[in-house]
């Protein structure tokens, strides 16, 4: 599935308050047009993430981390890779639940996902 090898599981993070760590806080997807902060992951509903990847191509850069129910690290929440003139993004974050619930941090992150190549195309 997709531009690069990626194995997706049925695993999910059901703890809506699981701590999110920034593996690369300087990554553009966390900084433009919105600076994504810890508070952007507050007030999420039902699930934090689902369809977590277990293996991915080394061209993907994992950006976010949380812990699963066994206290193991999950680094596949948001994977980003430059592909040609654009980007390929895999998100296991449950944005489909957050956006209808009007979770502001989810909107901010989604806007960043849509805008990831914006600075490059106009510089």
Question: Could you explain how this protein is built, in words?
Answer:
Helix content is about 15%, strand content about 25%. About 25% of the residues are buried. The chain has about 120 residues and is α+β, with helices and mostly antiparallel strands. It is globular, with a radius of gyration of 14 Å. A hairpin with a 5-residue loop joins strand 7 (about 65) and strand 8. It is built from three helices and ten strands; from the N terminus they run E-E-E-E-E-E-E-E-E-E-H-H-H.
Record the SSE blueprint.
Elements: E1 6-8, E2 12-13, E3 21-22, E4 49-50, E5 53-56, E6 61-62, E7 64-67, E8 73-74, E9 78-83, E10 86-91, H1 95-98, H2 104-115, H3 118-121
Antiparallel strand pairs: 1-5, 2-4, 3-7, 6-9, 7-8, 9-10
The biggest beta sheet, please? Answer: 3 strands, antiparallel
The oligomeric state is single chain
User: Could you tell me how far the N terminus lies from the C terminus, measured between alpha carbons in angstroms?
Assistant: 32 Å
Strand order of the largest sheet: 3-7-8
Write down the secondary-structure element order. Answer: EEEEEEEEEEHHH
Alpha-beta classification: alpha+beta
* Secondary structure: number of strands: 10
Shape descriptor: globular
Percent of residues in helices comes to: 10-25%
Query: How many alpha or pi helices?
Result: 3
Mean pLDDT: 91
Beta percentage is 25-35%
Overall radius of gyration = 14 Å
Uncertain spans: none
């Amino acid at each position: 599935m997709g531009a690069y090898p990626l194995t997706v599981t049925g695993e999910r993070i059901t703890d809506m308050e699981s701590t999110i760590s920034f593996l690369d806080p300087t990554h553009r997807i966390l900084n433009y047009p919105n600076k994504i902060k810890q508070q952007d992951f507050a007030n999420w509903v039902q699930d934090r993430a689902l369809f977590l990847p277990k293996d991915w191509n080394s061209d993907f850069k994992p950006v976010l981390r949380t812990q699963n129910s066994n206290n193991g690290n999950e680094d596949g929440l948001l994977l980003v890779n430059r592909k040609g003139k654009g980007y390929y993004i895999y998100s296991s974050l449950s944005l489909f639940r957050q956006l209808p619930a009007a979770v502001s941090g989810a909107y901010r992150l989604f806007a960043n996902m849509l805008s990831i190549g914006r600075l490059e195309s106009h510089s």
